[in-house]
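Exercise 3.2. Students should predict the tertiary structure of the chain below and write it as structure tokens, then compare their answer with the key that follows.

Predict this chain's 3D structure.
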Amino acid sequence: MTQAAIEVYGTIGVMETVNFQGRTDPLILMQSLLPHGIKEETIFAHIEDFKKRYFLYLKEAMPHSEAVLLPGVRQLLQTLTQYDNIIVGLLTGNFYQGALIKLQHFDIFKYFRMGVFADDTHIRNEMPFIALKRLYSLTGHTFAPADLIIIGDTIYDIECGKTSGAVTVAVATGWTDAALLLQHKPDYFFHDLSDTNLFLHTIKELSDSIKVKVQ
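Answer key:
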């Protein structure tokens, strides 16, 4: 992102001080470049050029990165796709192509039947409502916010779920401390997703009265 920003905008602004956690890619750009005097309309006027360069560098970098697939993720995705009454979706602050490059590196993009990306909105809390529209287009059925289960590893993922009325599941495999995640009162909390059966059991319990369960 820094290389692409330098080439397109002539600077990275304050990007090195921006916390990327839970933020959409366009928001990262705005928080990096606005303080440097680059206007929002200028950022978005050149964002397609930025994306092309960013995706090129990301694709080159992924095979050499230190990125790892977290415990239980592949097995959980494989298992969830076997359920007819569950639609696995990807709600991410990444641009579509960026998410594709990252997840194809681990061969897991194929498990997501639909998604909402930073190309759709730079405001994370709008994403669940876009997801509901996409679910209707995909299935022909109307879903309520309470039908969504949002799983994430930042306080912004919890906020996103609570703002929309979705069920929130916090997982402490990111950079956010478990205690901080719990302070934001997710409906469910896991230290990681390594126990697939336990997670599936949790989903079955979602019709019950919800309170934080530390797993």
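Discussion points: The longest strand covers residues 167-171. The chain has two domains: 2-64, 73-207.
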